[in-house]
Fold this protein.
Amino acid sequence: MHANVKQNVIPLNVPGLKVACSQCNLRELCLPFGLAEEELERLDTLIGGRRKIKRGQHLYRSGDPFEAIFAIKAGFFKTDVLTEDGRDQVTGFQMAGEIIGMDGISTEAHTCNAVALEDSEVCLIPFAELESLSSEIRALQHHFHKVMSREIVRDHGVMMLLGTMRAEERLAAFLLNLSQRFTARGYSSAEFHLRMTREEIGSYLGLKLETVSRAFSRFQDEGLISVQQKHIRILDIPNLKALLGPPGGGRH
Amino acid sequence: MHANVKQNVIPLNVPGLKVACSQCNLRELCLPFGLAEEELERLDTLIGGRRKIKRGQHLYRSGDPFEAIFAIKAGFFKTDVLTEDGRDQVTGFQMAGEIIGMDGISTEAHTCNAVALEDSEVCLIPFAELESLSSEIRALQHHFHKVMSREIVRDHGVMMLLGTMRAEERLAAFLLNLSQRFTARGYSSAEFHLRMTREEIGSYLGLKLETVSRAFSRFQDEGLISVQQKHIRILDIPNLKALLGPPGGGRH
DNA sequence: CTAGCCCTTTGATCTGTGTCAACCACGTTA
DNA sequence: TAACGTGGTTGACACAGATCAAAGGGCTAG
């Protein structure tokens, strides 16, 4: 492991270089949010380094011992649960700035799989140390609780989607959610690249891939979006949002 | 704190009497789990008193400012989310020993409604004080994180149910889950009283009430359970469990 | 005890989505 | 450049569950 001595290039991940939340451009979205300067520096000492995950590789698997949570530095992940009988449910898609792995806290072992959908990089946050630091920095403790709570609220939203929405509403909600999260990261809200397959979208939304594909086509026919493989352009946000109000239009 | 001097009667809720986790018969299920004697006593000072909730009353409503979480001392609750357009999704049923209200942490306001399905009683846990005490008692902090994480894992289970199971599998999973939770509380695993309506079960399971009713009838015809209104007796747990392995029997 | 209402059950029919199948488009490898 | 494989689209048809409808049973409140 020898130092990388290329010049003119900002070196990343040079051995010995400490990862720094305080310098991270995602700090407003991620765990450091709301911490003071001095606290941020202490947070820097917490991060256990970075890890690169290639597309298709697992960040962790169900059953792995739980030791750390991860902050996504770059890239895109899916998490899924699978049962003995072969059922597979995608429980979420995670992007830069989001925290992943909190499912493992309860049993000291991960309860789902996390797979990179593109080449990605995560920051390791050793959990025992996070708890230590939390008890010293109240703002960190509180913020971490908010992050977990937000996950619970997000899950309730998915339950609502799976329990009450029709196929096209689900897909519209999904696209609007992605759009909004890309916006928060400074990317276009109208144009983006899907990192997941139709089957993965379907699993997340409780639909079959053919149904997802048909809904995409219908949206395109109606001028709401333009689809070309994984490239999506949202053309008519208002009408896409209007789809979320259910069929009749609000009654029943 | 002043001694209560009534004799022969165990006094409950007498004004001035401190609620005590250390004496609670639910402590092995609830927040105190795993704490040492001395820590338990400090936890006692945290509890902000009890509150009785009559059947049909709200413990909190979506939008209420978030100040405390609640430990259910006795009774039965449902939580639900509703959208502007009138959709209603039951996100869970909670019973004695369970913690409710963690959805409110993220935004400082509750994001769902909690309604008592029978006359109930909860212990108030002021959240700011819980965080304070957490930073002093590491075991409490860690246990609270486990409780939140367990909620996330539970939600993933519901997503799996809503995303991949057919009506009868959903109902079987629901009954087995209730049975298991009653068992953990020392009640019969085979015979219990449903506190919720068919419509509420349906909302939770992503089904219409008629479908729930039909599935109950089918189970009864097949000798798996006996149903009389809200009274349920589970007759054949093995075959009920077998329903969870999907139709074909594991393929696809 | 009675009236009223809500909850539940059951039947008949309709429909959104799943299933099965064929074909196509793109990206990768040889 | 050709051949392959994975992922995506589209069509025809089937079916689980929704919807509509009607009737019965048990609480709850007077």
Notes: Residues 166-167, 207-208, 210-211, 214, 229 of chain A lie near DNA strand C (CB under 10 Å from a C1'). Confidence is low (pLDDT under 50) at residues 1-16, 248-252 of chain A. Chain A touches chain B through 53 residues (CB under 8 Å).
